[in-house]
Specification:
This protein has 451 residues and is an alpha+beta fold. The protein folds into two domains: 72-157 and 309-450, MetI-like fold; 174-299, no CATH class. It contains 13 helices and nine strands. Strands 2-3-9-6-7 form a five-stranded antiparallel sheet, with no helix packed on it. The longest helix is centred in the N-terminal third of the chain and has 44 residues, at 15-58. The protein is elongated and about 130 Å long.
Length: 451
């Protein structure tokens, strides 16, 4: 009898083969991932890594790029007054703009929770983000124009100013030479010879266009004879020509609303009056004596033109104002998103304990929002360090240097007439070194928040 053949148990796969298969699978996944990532890496290298390395190398050469100068460009940029001014302005930007924007965004985000049309309000504030910096710069360049006929801000300011203070009636008027008037030391005009009661003066002026005469101006009349000091202030010009210079002719207009003062020998104002519609004036209550007739400076002062927004003193704050207009919506939306995620039970518990809204805002809302506020602040710091468009477009040529920041100074030195790309590359490296710490801080904080 034959025995049943023994069935052998299947052999287990060698452990080394499984490890090798896993390694081959991982290598395939890495290769596939590399194929997909490679275009992005090539683009990153061509647009970021290579320009950075090239700028670092170029900063070590002179303007022509042929002679190695080492760190001379770096020492030169800290000796250049224009570069130092750009560093100062960049510091003002970094300190002022992110701080104000974060504060505004926080306040607006909290307030929008209290109004019915919150979505529409946020939309209106966020709309400037859709406008390019170039277009925004052109808009604000026009808004900041010093001429009130063109600049909307100064048009509003001069309009309000005119409500409280009358404008000078004759800013372009000047006295006709040889008619007994001479410039006064403090401005305006005075008579060359003293006069007293019983004298009649004819004071002619030129430089006023007939269309610019005040409403109600009448033809000039000869001063009335009598025992008072009197006279006439008139425009020594007759439309259509004719007449004689220095003489009151028919058809010449009086200059109404002209302030006239009688000054005694001690320099005190003994009498003051205003010319009538025909330009005549009189001092009926003057005591006997000798007086100098003065037409004060306020008659001829230039009209108020508003604020010189783009002057050397205000150009940087004015440009920062344009930047705030663009980025306030961004800060408000980001902070509003963080505000919406706050635990409402903590806020309600504080209200039930008797805390008012200011105490809740200061002691609960702001501490809970501190991570979001930090991210917004650091993001804005990075952004303002690179600001270029607004500064270059809004600042007029004569004050461009007063408004320059590092980015505009880098461009001007390299391409805007300086043609010194060695120094410009050094400025670019400086700007990179200033931006990188803020970027690293933002990335680390983001990773911590995700863990």
């Amino acid at each position: 009898m034959r025995g049943t053949p023994a069935v052998s148990a299947p052999s287990a796969p060698a452990p080394g083969a499984a490890v090798q298969r896993r390694r081959r699978a991982q290598r395939r996944k890495r290769a596939i991932a590399l194929v997909f990532v490679l275009p992005a890496l090539l683009l990153l290298g061509a647009l970021v890594v290579y320009p950075v390395l090239f700028s670092v190398g170029r900063s070590l050469f002179d303007a022509s790029g042929t002679e190695f100068v080492g760190v001379e460009n770096y020492t030169e940029m800290f000796r250049d007054p224009a570069t130092l001014k750009a560093i100062r302005n960049s510091t003002i930007w970094v300190v002022a703009a992110p701080t104000v924007l974060t504060g505004l965004g926080l306040v607006l985000a909290v307030l929008t929770e209290k109004i019915r049309w919150a979505t529409a309000f946020k939309l209106v504030l966020f709309l400037p983000m859709a406008v390019s910096f170039l277009a925004a710069g052109i808009v604000f360049r026009l808004a900041y124009e010093h001429d009130p006929d063109r600049g909307v801000l100064n048009a509003a300011i001069t309009g309000v100013h005119g409500v409280f203070e009358d404008a000078s009636p004759y800013p372009t008027a000047r006295a006709r030479e040889g008619l007994g008037l001479e410039p006064a030391p403090g401005g305006g005009y005075v008579t060359a010879r003293p006069a007293g009661p019983g004298d009649a003066l004819t004071l002619g002026f030129v430089g006023v266009a007939p269309k610019d005469l005040p409403d109600g101006a009448a033809p000039a009349a000869a001063p009335a004879a009598g025992d008072t000091l009197s006279g006439v202030v008139y425009l020594d010009f007759r439309p259509g020509g004719g007449g004689e210079q220095g003489r009151l002719d028919d058809g010449e207009s009086g200059l109404p609303r002209m302030a006239v003062e009688a000054v005694d020998a001690s320099g005190q104002v003994a009498g003051a009056t205003t010319t009538a519609s025909d330009g005549t004036f009189a001092f009926p209550e003057l005591a006997d004596g000798s007086y100098t007739v003065r037409l004060p400076e306020r008659n001829f002062a230039e009209p108020y033109q508003g604020v010189s927004w783009l002057g050397p003193a205000l150009v940087t704050p004015a440009i920062i104002g344009a930047y705030l207009w663009i980025w306030t919506g961004f800060a408000m939306v980001l902070i509003g998103a963080g505000l919406a995620a706050l635990p409402r039970d903590a806020l309600e518990a504080a209200r039930m304990d008797g805390a008012n809204e200011w105490q809740i805002f200061r002691s609960i809302t702001v501490p809970l929002l501190s991570p979001v506020l930090t991210v917004v602040f650091v993001t804005l710091v990075i952004n303002v360090m690179k600001v270029f468009d607004l500064v270059y477009i809004i600042a007029p040529g004569p004050v461009q240097e007063e408004a320059n920041v590092l980015a505009t100074q880098m461009w001007l030195v390299s391409f805007g007439g300086g043609n010194n790309q060695g120094l410009g590359s050094a400025l670019a490296v400086l700007l990179l070194l200033l931006v990188v710490p803020a970027m690293v801080f933002n990335v680390r904080r983001f990773r911590r928040s995700q863990s």
